Amino acid sequence: MAYAYPPQPVYAMRTTAPVSLHVVAIFQYLGGLFMLGIAALFGLAASDMAAQWDTQFGTRMSAATPLIAVVVGVFATVGLIAIVLGRKVQRGRNWARVLLTLLNVLSLASVAWQVYSTSLFTAATIVSVAVPVLFLILLNTRAARSWCRYGTY
């Protein structure tokens, strides 16, 4: 006579991301807001500079206006992309986790190239290595991988 297996415990589905992904997302949000602030400051400085240029030199600064608009647009776009990536990784999108991992690896490669080409190893270099390494560790914890693949951990 065979008996069925006893009932297995049911684990509650988690509804929030693990702490490691929250930390990465918060830093993405802060970086994106910082980039949006830089874009706003560039736009504000350009408008103020254009007004002063007109009064001092009596000529229009129309040649530099498209360049300033492109710079402001690039900073704003990068800021928005950072915020969107932070949100997507927090919500459990694996493609966002993989993309952030790839970007952190590229950041480490650029720092390594800088140290190799300039032979300078300063405190800023240590921070430039420590932050991407920390994010790589946080993005590849067991809980983060499980959250992005299965929606629970």
* Helix proportion: over 70%
List unreliable stretches of 5+ residues.
Answer: none
Instruction: Summarize the biggest pleated sheet.
Output: none
Assess the beta-strand content as a share of residues.
under 5%
Shape: elongated
Give me the secondary-structure category.
mainly alpha
- Tell me how many strands there are: 0
Task: Give structural notes.
The protein is mainly alpha-helical and 153 residues long. The protein is built from 5 helices and no strands. Helix 2 (65-91) crosses helix 3. The mean pLDDT is 90.
SSE topology:
Elements: H1 19-57, H2 65-91, H3 94-118, H4 123-139, H5 142-150
Helix pairs in contact: 1-2, 2-3, 3-4
Structure characteristics:
mainly alpha; 5 helices
Gist of the model:
The chain has 153 residues and is mostly helical. It has helices at 19-57, 65-91, 94-118, 123-139, 142-150.
